[in-house]
TrEMBL record:
Cellular component terms per the entry's GO annotation: extracellular region
Organismal lineage: Bacteria, Bacillati, Actinomycetota, Actinomycetes, Pseudonocardiales
Protein name: L,D-TPase catalytic domain-containing protein
Pfam families assigned: Big_10, YkuD
MF-aspect GO terms: acyltransferase activity; peptidoglycan L,D-transpeptidase activity
Species assigned in the record: Amycolatopsis balhimycina DSM 5908
Cross-referenced PANTHER family: L,D-TRANSPEPTIDASE, L,D-TRANSPEPTIDASE YCIB-RELATED
């Protein structure tokens, strides 16, 4: 809805996201303008003012408020949100005929606009209006799946999590932009109605710079829901660090930029049905490092075996490198040193002695890769850390709303 009140010969056109135009104010008769007290000069028309771009009754907050003068120049433009008391900044064109707001507008807000134009004879005329931005039924605001970082591994998975369901995934996905240097391509994969991940076909190249940006703000993305505040992040990929852990050989090997630099015996999760708790095999598949803790209390109550239950434990562990959300770590475990390299007896973690555990702790960081094979366990899933790499490239592309 727009309300206008004018002094002088003016026209008002309001913009909205629909792209349609509607004239909502007409030129006032000269007699009315004069009665209102506007100075005129015989034979010199008053300057007119219009608000653009043209549209319906409500303005998308991603579009600017534009004020244009005809038959003269703009002397002053003031745009204020009376609900917040904040003014809106804008830029005046070199010829002083166009003013364009540069601050981001708000959803469901009313902006008071006052524009004063001066005609060729120096006579001023003023136009006042209220501009209303659209009020959607919901605003879906994205958050980064992986925070921006200048130090991540080649297994980096980036993505977005929204706080509302996205029913028009294709439209939303078009507003996501990922660039990498060197260029490696990639594709989006919708994990759920609210979450989408991005990765290339193969691991990122060491030394890459990856940038994620959204332009979803102000965009309808289905069900009368519009995009919320945009986000962006830049990631710097460090050297390639990839560990390969084999449940048959009970060895874990570390490769730095493709070169083998470390081999260590390990004990993975047990596959035998050993009382009081059954099999606890390590998940197969590509894991990435999610975080590290020098010292941590490993408590079985985190997976439902609490104090007083058979098999309960609460033990301090050192040099912990987390590789899944399900409690899997590379870490020191002195109780299993005797079988490290020969048997899998852990509760799912990759046990090592002190020296080897600390070496992995010192060298492996967030985004570095740990590939687990022959563990006897199920495949690591996409919602259990970064199981994204286990999905074939064909299936991954099919998970895109644009390419599936």
């Amino acid at each position: 809805m727009i309300r206008i009140a004018g002094l002088g010969l003016v026209a008002l056109v309001l913009a909205a996201c629909s792209g349609q135009s509607e004239t909502v104010g007409a030129a006032l008769p000269v007699g009315v303008a004069e009665a209102a007290g506007t100075a005129t000069t015989p034979g010199v028309p008053a300057a007119t003012v219009a608000f653009l771009p043209a549209g319906g009754e409500q303005l998308s907050p991603k579009d600017p408020i534009v004020v244009k003068a005809s038959g003269g120049t703009l002397q002053a433009v003031a745009v204020t949100n009376p609900q917040t008391g904040n003014g809106v900044k804008g830029d005046l064109s070199p010829d002083k005929t166009t003013w364009t707001s540069k601050d981001r507008l708000r959803y469901g807000s009313t902006y008071q606009v006052v524009a004063t134009a001066v005609n060729q004879a120096g006579a001023a005329s003023e136009q006042r209006a209220e501009v209303h931005t659209l009020k959607p039924s919901g605003v879906a605001t994205p958050a980064l799946f992986q925070p921006a970082s200048s130090d991540v591994g080649v297994g980096l998975i980036i993505g977005l999590k929204f706080d509302h369901d996205i029913t028009d995934k294709a439209t939303a996905e078009k507003s996501f932009k990922v660039t990498s240097s060197p260029d490696q391509g990639g594709s989006w994969y919708w994990v759920s109605k609210r979450e989408a991940h991005f990765r290339p076909k193969d691991y990122w190249k060491a030394g890459s710079t990856v940038k994620l940006e959204t332009t979803t703000f102000g965009m309808p993305i289905g069900g009368e829901v519009y995009g919320g505040q945009d986000v962006s992040a830049t990631y710097k990929v460090h050297d390639s660090w990839i560990a390969k852990a084999d449940g048959t050989t009970h060895q874990i090997k570390a490769f730095h930029n493709g070169q083998l630099v470390k081999t260590a015996p390990t004990s993975m999760g047990k596959t035998a049905d050993t009382p009081p708790r059954g099999p606890t095999p390590t998940f197969n598949g590509t894991h990435t490092v999610l975080g590290k803790e020098e010292h941590k209390i490993m408590d079985s109550c985190t997976y439902g075996v609490c104090e007083g239950d058979p098999g309960y434990y609460s033990a301090p562990e050192n040099w912990n490198v987390r590789i899944s959300n399900d409690g899997e770590y590379l870490h020191e475990n002195l109780k299993t040193v005797g079988v490290q390299g020969s048997a899998n007896v852990s509760n799912g973690c990759l046990n090592m002695n002190t020296e080897n555990a600390k070496w992995f702790f010192d060298n492996f960081n967030v985004g570095d890769v740990v590939e687990v094979t022959n563990s006897g366990g199920p495949q690591l899933t996409i919602n259990n850390g970064h199981g994204d790499w286990a999905i074939s490239w064909t299936a991954w592309q099919a998970g895109s709303a644009l390419h599936g």
